[in-house]
Amino acid sequence: MFGSYEDGYKWIPKVLEQIKKKNRGSIGVVATDMDKYFSYCCLSFKAYLEGFKNGCRPFIGLDGCHLNGKYGGVLLSAVALDGNNGMYPLAIFICDCENKENWILFLNLIKDMLLEHPAPLTFISDRQKGLIPAIQIVFPSNRTRYWFRHMYENFKTKHKGVHMKTLAWGATKAYRDTDHTRYMALMEKDNKKAHQWFEDVPTIQWARSTFDHTSKCEHVTNNFTECLNSWLVELRCKPIHMILEGFNLKMMNLMFDRKMIAKKWEAEGLILVPIDDRIMKNIINLKRRYQLFGSEEYIWCVMNYLTSRRWEVNLTKKTCTCCVWEITGIPCVHVVAVACHLRMDPNSLVEEYHKVSAYKKAYGGRVEPCASQDGWIEMSSAI
Questions:
Q1: Which residues contact 283 (CB under 8 A, 6 or more apart)?
Q2: Tell me, what's the pLDDT at 379?
Q3: Percent of residues, the chain, with pLDDT higher than 70
Q4: What distance in Å separates the CA atoms of residue 94 and residue 241, rounded to the nearest whole number?
Q5: What is the pTM of this model?
Q6: Rounded mean pLDDT of 191-217?
Q7: At what angle do helices 240-267 and 46-55 cross, to 10 degrees?
Q8: Is the model's pLDDT at 378 over the cut of 60?
């Protein structure tokens, strides 16, 4: 139905040539070993790399999945997030297996384009099959996070129970260092070996309270890369040239669909993308629970009426002692309470990445389809 698996490898150079011809500046590379057997290929579209630079957070997930065709292999991927937390595919790399050497080859091919992003990059991944050493070699000055769900799966093989699960996930999701420390202190009190298990992993790579403030992304899991694996599932059993063609069409359609969605949001007058617009509306409804005490024009103490807990908000430095604003780029309820009191628009305090304007930049390019298979096969035969 889809052609010969063997012939698929023969057609890779022609498919990539056609894709690059229609999509100038895109990355399309195929390599063979000393015996002229297929080694790897990589495909990345210029429109998405430019959109990542102009409208996406500097946050990239790395993962791999198996191909289900006659000759197996793996598909490695680099995926970003758009402002509405939708997967934003950056590149795929098809090779024989997932190991350190292949990850280095893949990351080196897309390195220069990724580093054009104006902010430092943050990578999130699991800790298997040479991926972490590869990131450290290719991107030594950028930040890494571990996929906490993968960490927890390893942790629970030795430390089971709902209580340990609550403490572990509480520690990783805490925004404030004091909350993280409290969860870890409880874990040490209840199970010293469990506490030591986490102490052996650098906190900066799995605890939200230690994340840098440039990525504006609080994610501790890598679910969006798994979304890509599911998105490509219908292609993963096909001959390799059909995988590349299908990826081309899917990327074209994804960019078009989301471009149309952005136009619809703009016509509806949305400033923030819908997921963040809902968050801000919920936060604004909660602001009445807080009492304000001014220190300076843009420095306030915010107190909860019921619990008497207090937070300090500094609008000039864009900080709140709850740390939510700094990490996510979305104002917390304490900041919103102050902003509304000062008659400021709370949406103006949201980081640009979460706005419809940035979403439009992310999907402002265009992906063109390569020539149909019949067309380039006939052309090759004529030559």
A1: 331, 332, 333, 336, 346
A2: 46
A3: 96
A4: 11
A5: 0.92
A6: 92
A7: 40
A8: no
Using 50, 70 and 90 to split pLDDT, how confident is the model at 381?
Answer: very low
pLDDT value at position 246?
94
| Alpha-carbon gap, residue 359 to 357, rounded angstroms | 5
In angstroms, rounded to a whole number, what is the distance separating the alpha carbons of residues 58 and 193? 35
* pLDDT score of 126: 84
**pLDDT for the residue numbered 268:** 95
The whole-number pLDDT of residue 225 equals 86
- 356 vs 261: CA distance, rounded Å: 10
Half-sphere exposure of 367 (CA within 13 A, CB side): 33
For the CA atoms of 7, 8, 13, 16, what is the dihedral angle to 10 degrees? 150
| Whole-angstrom distance, CA of residue 100 vs CA of residue 62 | 13
Assign 3-class secondary structure to the chain.
CCCCHHHHHHHHHHHHHHHHHHCCCCEEEEEECCCCCEEEEEEECHHHHHHHHHHCCCEEEEEEEECCCCCCCEEEEEEEECCCCCEEEEEEEEECCCCHHHHHHHHHHHHHHHCCCCCCCEEEECCCCCHHHHHHHHCCCCEEEECHHHHHHHHHCCCCCHHHHHHHHHHHHCCCHHHHHHHHHHHHHHCHHHHHHHHCCCHHHCCHHHCCCCCCCCCCCCHHHHHHHHHCCCCCCCCHHHHHHHHHHHHHHHHHHHHHHHHHHHHCCCCECHHHHHHHHHHHHHHHHEEEEEEECCEEEEEECCCCCEEEEECCCCEECCCHHHHHCCCCHHHHHHHHHCCCCHHHHCCHHHEHHHHHHHCCCCCCCCCCHHHHHHHHHHC
Would you say residue 382 has pLDDT above 60?
A: no
Return d(Cα 214, Cα 377) in angstroms, integer: 48
- If we measure between CA atoms, which residue out of 255, 253, 249 comes closest to residue 43? 249
